[in-house]
Structure formats: C-alpha cells, structure tokens
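Example record

One chain of 183 residues, shown exactly as stored in the release files.
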Amino acid sequence: MVLSVYVYGSGVLKKTAASVTEDYPRLQQLISDMWDTLYNAGGVGLAAPQVGHAIRLIVIDASSFKDDDPLADGFKRVLINPELMEFSEEKVSFNEGCLSIPGVHEDVVRPKRVRVHYFDEHFQEHNEWFDATPARIAQHEYDHIEGVLFTERLAPIRRKIISRKLQNISRGKGEAGYKTRIN
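Predicted structure tokens for this chain:
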C-alpha cells in the first residue's frame, strides 16, 4: 500500500527514531508499504519517519543510478537499526533531493564510503562498506532517523536562499507527484 510522505514542517521528521525489535507490530507490512511508497514517488531511499513512523528503518534501491554508477546496479537493501561505523576521508559533492522536501535540490558534501552495521528484514546482521551512490543514499536516509534533513547540511547562505520554498512546503503549498502529508 502506498503511504503518504510526511513533508518539511512535520514533527516526526525532527525526532530521533527509536530502535526496532523483531516483535514490532506489522513490521513486514510496513517494509512492503515503504517499498510501494518509494517506487510510487520515484525515490531511491526512504526512512520510516518519512511515512510517520519514528523508528530506525530504511529502504534503499539505488539501481536507478546504475548508468552513472556501476555500484548502484542491483543495490537494494532494508536497513533495520543501522549504525554508521566508519567513514572514508574522501568526500564528494552531489546534488541531493528528498521526498520530504519536494522540488528542492542542493549540493551536499558527504564521505564517499561508509561502513554500515545493520540488520536486514529477516534480522540477519550485516556489516558492510557502502561506496559511491549507495553510501550517499545511506547517509541521507540515516540522517532522517536522527531527525536531520539534508537542508541542515547546507551553508547558511544556501539555507537562506531556499527558506521561502521550505516555508511553502510546510504550509502545504509544495508540489509533489505523490501523496504528501504534514503533521
């Protein structure tokens, strides 16, 4: 089922998310709904707070970037209780967008590689390095479960420039091609 995406100004996007246990009610259904929502919105990553659940759950499908980044081809993950353990010193800039901030795209500098410890949808433990596009998406989505939006990683002058767009989104005046919601 396609869920509404909570947009800029929604309180759930500013909360630090809680850990997920194996007995979390309807977890597998939520994961399925998050995939449906991600694909419906044309995104590459989605964190549970973006659909109104303040829990540490992320879905990523980087495959739409496969033409520009071979590491993105077939990269599809469910991350439960992820932890970013280690970062590369090398950083790269990329023009990011966010389903919760429709119509806003800005350059954000992040580490090129990140080591992620997480559990998959079967609660199997993983510890792996994500590189390039998958690393970028994982870091962006991880920020969501920490209550951080990518706009907070921008220089103050850039935040000032986009402030009117953000105000409009928080007032329900943002345009998205998918269901959105403000709480």
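Notes: The first helix runs from residue 27 to 41.
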